[in-house]
Amino acid sequence: MAGARRAVNADARLAGLVARQRPGWSLDREFYLDPAVAAADLAAIWHRRWLFVAHGVELPEPGCVLALEIGSEPLLLVRGRDGIVRGFANVCRHRGSRICKPGPGRAHRLVCPYHAWTYDLDGRLASDVRGHGVDATELGLRAYRTEEIGGLVFVSLADDPPDIAPMRAAYASWLEPQGLARARIAHSVEYRVAANWKVVFENNRECLHCPVAHREYIRANYDIHLTDPRRAAEIAARVEAEAARWAAMGLAAPTLASDMTAAWWRVNRTPLVPGFVTESLDGAAVAPVMGGYRTHDVGTLRATTFPNFWMHGSGDHAVTTRLLPDGPETTLIRVCWLVDGAAREGRDYALDGLTPFWRLTSEQDWELCENVQRGLRSARYRPGPFETVKERNVAQFVAWYLDELRAAAAT
Ligand code: FES
Ligand SMILES: [Fe+2]
To answer: 291 CA to middle of ligand 2, Å?
Structure first.
């Protein structure tokens, strides 16, 4: 009874917090610090929405498994004998043991380390459990909706996930020439960033900080010049020229703005600044042409999904970023660099050419985010106003987030 009353009080407190947020302003500090809000984020966002979890090439063959944890939920990805990637709760149906430790592996069958209940790669219980007085068909691993789209694996932990069909169709066609499904992961770095996941995504959704923080990024990209009237004619001419060149290669027309395509996802291709054929420190190619591209110079394919994914794809490599929350004030971030599947390190690319651009840009961002988190801990922090044009996408992210909390509370 006391527990139920506490839950009602917590719900009412969260609803009050959500209701008092001012549109176009940053959120109250509780959203970035409070364990109760972090728990609400897990329930409303992380255990409900579609999440980017892995690259399909991390599970190259039937029998490949990959385990990871999303908040309190252990997740197991398995490529079945039919080649399809499936997501399961990594929780034994006997007495609940976690079955696989986090990380990659290979298996003919999935064997629980506790009493050796054994599951087939499609999640069916293969053990004889008649001695338990039940039928094995009742006790397969709990399956999650899983989608492999253009080489990216998305999972929803929800019973009734949001409609992914429009995003799937858009990503499948835009990502096809990038060739992620046949790529090689050349390098990856895992970061433990001392900032709430929303601080990290808010930072991603604006380039107002780019002139201050990202010397390398702004040399290659137009982002900070898009609102500069002195550059408007030059940028329009560049877009027109690239549109014609890309159309001849079967690529869709450039769009420069970083606005979301729909409420929770976007995909578009942007021209790079002349002299840059890829996102590298000097603009020169750093790996062989990737996937189905015919030339290096295809601008940058950008994709974003809330709450945990973004990527930039150049003609010769792609860089993906995955966020996972670990408590209110920590975000686990993995950055992956992918090249064409046939490219070989040493012969075709070198990591000291491939990785610095996004390594520097990412680490500059993580430092900014940790500074924000430190400021949010201060009792003197108060929400501040977003710049109406250059931070409009932060306002959009925050509005989406609050809508998700309201929607979850209503169900
Ligand atoms: S808990 Fe898995 S076999 Fe007993
Ligand atoms: Fe940044």
So the answer is: 27
- E strand or H helix at 270: strand 265-270
* Substitution candidate for ligand 1 out of 88, 99, 110, 112 with most atoms within 8 A of CB: 112
For residue 77, what are the β-bridge partners? 66, 87
For residue 76, what are the contacts with CB-CB under 8 A and spacing of at least 6?
A: 65, 66, 67, 87, 88, 89, 90, 99, 100, 110, 141
Residue type, 219: R
Q: What is the pTM of this model?
A: 0.96
User: DSSP character for 98?
Assistant: B
Instruction: Give which of 206, 184, 189 is closest to 333, Cα–Cα.
Output: 189
- Positive or negative, the Cα torsion across 253, 257, 262, 268? positive
| Distance (Å) from CA 91 to ligand 1 centroid | 9
Write out residues with Cβ below 6 Å of ligand 1.
92, 94-97, 112, 114-117
Is-contact 64 58, C-beta < 8 A? yes
Helix 356-376 to helix 197-204 angle, to the nearest 10 degrees? 130
How many other C-beta atoms can be found within 10 angstroms of the C-beta atom of residue 320? 24
Q: For residue 307, is the peptide bond before it cis, meaning its omega torsion is within 30 degrees of 0?
A: yes
pLDDT of the chain, 411 residues: tens digit per residue: 567 777 778 889 999 999 999 999 999 999 999 999 999 999 999 999 999 999 999 999 999 999 999 988 999 999 999 999 999 999 999 999 999 999 999 999 999 999 999 999 999 999 999 999 988 888 999 999 999 999 999 999 999 999 999 999 999 999 999 999 999 999 999 999 999 999 999 999 999 999 999 999 999 998 888 888 898 898 889 889 999 999 999 998 888 888 999 999 999 999 999 999 999 999 999 999 999 999 999 999 999 999 999 999 999 999 999 999 999 999 999 999 999 999 999 999 999 999 999 999 999 999 999 999 999 999 999 999 999 999 999 999 999 999 999 999 998
* Ligand 1 binding pocket mutation candidate from 117, 119, 139 (most atoms within 8 A of CB): 117
Rounded to whole angstroms, the Cα distance separating 318 from 142 reads 33
What's the one-letter identity of residue 168? R
In this structure, how many other beta carbons lie within 10 angstroms of the beta carbon of residue 322? 22
Measure Cα distances from 7 to 10, 121, 327, 402 in Å. Answer: 5, 38, 19, 19
